[in-house]
Request: fold
Amino acid sequence: MRIAGPDMPEGAIIKIGAFYSAWLFSLMTVSSGVEAPKQLEEILLIEFEGMVIPAVPAIAAVLGVLMSRMLSPKKDPPLSLTNNVIVTMIMLVASLLWVIEAQPGTLFAFLVAIGMGFSGYSLIELMGEEIKIFVKKAFSTATEFLGRLSKKKED
Reply:
């Protein structure tokens, strides 16, 4: 590699390894005294009762759970408002506890919350009807059994 500069005689040759090692050494020397910029997650921390809560990932987790409702499939008839609020609150508490415990980055918290919300809503919507059928069947079987028992006692 030929490099021409004010201090170098014309036609001087520098080996590429020497050039990059000098360049890398200079870069490391200059950057070692520079403090790395703080990320938003490190700046906005809420301390509450000895817990450190990263505000930005917590907000991202809440938004992920709430936005995932629009992505999840809905059955006919849909969940009642009360059941929808209860499921949402359970997932919000779970995602916020995870953010407090794991201290993830904002993007990761958002993506995990979307996944948790989507799967939670989908499971409740899809399995809710089957759970209702199972409970009704269990009660009808128990009622029949108790009816037969009382009939045997009368005889």
In short: Strands lie at 45-48, 51-54. Helices lie at 16-32, 40-43, 55-68, 81-102, 106-154. The chain has a mean pLDDT of 76.
